[in-house]
């Protein structure tokens, strides 16, 4: 068997062309050196490596997405908790104001009862009956 020469005279091409030619030579070399079964295993390894890179990129993207979602959730939770605390404080102030008004009204009612009792005693003593 005669092995084909791997040395070629490459014409001057641009960088992309050179890469294409080198890649083609590598593929040709694989075909000449490797039998069919081992070529399939090499192809499978290459495909698995590519999938692994895509999965790694996908995992990184998923981690970034999870991190951003987590941070946004924390910020929204903090805003909601702050709003609830603000509402609790406002409600407490309103309840305190209402309580103080009720206490002052209770004192006024007590004073009015005392005055009513005094008036009734005075009317009973003076003998004026209805």
TrEMBL record:
Transmembrane segments: 65-89
Disordered: region residues: 36-57
One Pfam family of this chain: DUF4577
Keywords carried by this UniProt record: Membrane, Transmembrane, Transmembrane helix
Protein name: LSME1 protein
Organism: Dicrurus megarhynchus
């Amino acid at each position: 068997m005669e092995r084909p020469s791997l040395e070629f005279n490459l014409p001057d091409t641009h960088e992309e062309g050179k890469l294409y030619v080198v890649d083609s030579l590598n593929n040709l070399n694989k075909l000449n050196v490797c039998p069919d079964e081992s070529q399939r295993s090499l192809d499978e390894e290459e495909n698995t490596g590519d999938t692994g890179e895509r999965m790694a990129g996908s995992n990184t993207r998923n981690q970034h997405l999870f991190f951003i979602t987590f941070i946004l959730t924390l910020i929204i939770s903090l805003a909601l908790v702050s709003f609830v605390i603000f509402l609790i404080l406002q409600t407490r102030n309103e309840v305190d104001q209402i309580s103080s008004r009720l206490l002052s009204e209770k004192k006024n009612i007590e004073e009015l009862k005392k005055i009513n009792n005094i008036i009734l005693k005075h009317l009973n003593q003076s003998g004026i009956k209805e």
